[in-house]
Design goal:
This protein is of the alpha+beta class. Helices cover 31% and strands 24% of the residues. A four-stranded antiparallel beta sheet has the order 1-2-3-4, with helices on one face. The longest helix has 16 residues, at 102-117.
């Protein structure tokens, strides 16, 4: 059974330190009000600030601070931008095999077969005749220029 971490008073009160360290990497107008300080472990506290970033409604800046025993100096462990309550998120990822229906596969195969039966090269295949042909003169020039380098 894990014990809930006790909030370190020194680190919890280090809001100004957390804000100053965030301002080293974040524009001042993107950093909003202090939202919370939570204990993540012994002498480890995460501060959260409102994010004022266009397109990131509901997101939160976080910064984790730690200290060694009996020290009164906070050290930054990590910082970043995470989604908060009600944040706009991308939809769950759906594998290709689940997104493509059997009808779409049949339609694609039908188009491919129709093009082949009419003597046309299907658009998704490489036309060997359109490849660039390298002559002996070209290959000799290429090998000479690579030797010169």
């Amino acid at each position: 059974m894990t014990r809930k971490a006790k909030l370190d008073d020194f680190l919890a009160q280090a809001v100004d330190v957390a804000r100053d360290r965030l301002l080293e990497v974040v524009e001042a107008d993107q950093l909003g009000e202090h939202l919370s300080a939570t204990a993540d472990g012994e002498r480890l506290v995460t501060h959260r600030f409102a994010a004022e970033v266009a397109g990131y409604d509901g997101w939160v800046w976080f910064i984790s601070l730690a200290r060694v025993p009996r020290s009164k100096e906070a050290t930054v462990c990590e910082l970043g931008l995470i989604p908060g309550e009600g944040a706009l998120l991308a939809p769950e990822w759906v594998p290709w095999s689940a997104r493509v229906t059997a009808e779409e596969i049949e339609s694609e195969e039908s188009e491919h077969d129709d093009a082949a039966s009419e003597g046309e090269e299907p658009a998704d295949t490489v036309d060997a005749s359109s490849e660039v042909e390298v002559t002996e003169d070209d290959s000799a020039e290429t090998s000479e220029s690579s030797k010169a380098e």
